[in-house]
Design goal:
Layout: E1 14-20, H1 23-32, E2 40-46, E3 64-71, H2 81-99, E4 104-106, E5 110-113, E6 116-127, E7 133-143, H3 148-151, H4 160-164, H5 170-191, H6 194-203, E8 210-215, E9 218-228, E10 234-237, E11 243-246, E12 251-253
Parallel strand pairs: 1-2
Antiparallel strand pairs: 2-3, 3-7, 4-5, 5-6, 6-7, 8-9, 8-12, 9-10, 10-11
Helix pairs in contact: 2-5, 2-6
The chain binds adenosine-5'-triphosphate and biotin.
């Protein structure tokens, strides 16, 4: 794997905004204009926070940490899934360190606590003409001080406050994440994916679960999630014993 960026500079390049439609959109715009790898975009509130599969991400003012990182790894497109898996490991480990609670990773990169989602990750990439990644934007939402009323009908979500009774500072959570991410990102540059894969597997609540693979809304495969391969794809064994690998975007999981 060939990479040029070291990833140790993220703390020095944080841009704060009171309001953005989406930190991912802003970061994509900045990256397109040439912003440096390592730039971080934070918003107090997002008016159109984006989740995976074109879903909406609830991002009320000051209740959570809504941010995106611009990364410029020199990397073949076949390894791109590893960036989001790396971010999930960093988020789980940072939150664990901060709170002493046990967080798990639901495929591919939801961070769960007590069976509810506390953090979501949305990575978006621009490819260069030769198929390599020109830049990646990794957007992360961490619910910090949301109460049950803030979540309303969203019964599948939780926050650090709901789980611990403690009101964490946004700065503290951002620093914890960036410390963890910088270390893992540098390690990935020098040593590759193997130990990050191990950490993802160790924290995963997806292994052993039944998963459904969909093409748009049509189910095309189902089975038990058995492992992750060296590229970051999930290996699923169906009822006939056949094992297939799948990227994210394609898989939904009934429970975790
Ligand atoms: P559809 O919009 O097609 O009805 P949906 O109900 O899954 O599908 P949304 O209601 O838009 O879509 O929710 C998007 C997903 O993101 C849901 O799974 C929701 O639980 C989750 N979600 C949104 N905001 C947050 C948040 N701040 N914390 C945790 N989960 C969230
Ligand atoms: C998901 O779980 O579906 C992914 C949610 C990602 C939400 C974050 S909040 C900061 C960044 N900006 C966005 O619009 N989305 C991501």
């Amino acid at each position: 794997m060939k990479m040029a960026e070291t990833g140790t500079i993220l703390h020095n390049q944080i841009q704060y905004y009171e309001e953005l439609a989406s930190t991912n959109l802003k970061a994509l715009e900045l990256a397109k204009q040439g912003a440096a790898g390592g730039t971080v975009v934070v918003a107090v509130r997002q008016t159109a926070g984006r989740g995976r599969m074109r879903r909406k991400w609830e991002s009320p003012e000051g209740k959570g940490l809504w941010f995106s990182m611009i990364l410029r790894p020199t990397i073949a497109a076949e390894y791109c899934a590893q960036i989001t898996l790396l971010a999930a490991v960093a988020a789980a480990q940072a939150l664990q360190r901060l709170t002493d609670k046990n967080f798990s990773i639901k495929w591919p990169n939801d961070i769960m606590l007590d069976g509810k989602k506390i953090c979501g990750i949305l990575a978006e990439m621009a490819l260069a003409a030769d198929g390599s990644i020109e830049y990646a934007v990794v957007g992360i939402g961490i619910n910090i001080n949301m109460s049950s009323e803030d979540f309303g009908a969203l019964l599948t979500a939780t926050s650090l406050y709901l789980a611990t009774g403690i009101e964490y500072e946004h700065e503290q959570v951002l620093k914890a994440f960036l410390d963890e991410f910088s270390l893992l990102y540098s390690h990935w540059h020098s040593c590759g994916f193997a130990s990050i894969r191990q950490a993802w597997l160790a924290n995963s609540c997806t292994l052993g679960q039944k998963v459904i693979v969909k093409d748009n809304d049509t189910e095309i495969y189902s089975g038990i999630a058995e492992d992750m391969d060296d590229y970051g794809s999930l290996l699923v064994r169906n009822a006939a014993g056949k094992i297939e690998s799948f990227d994210f975007g394609e898989i939904s999981i009934r429970s975790c």
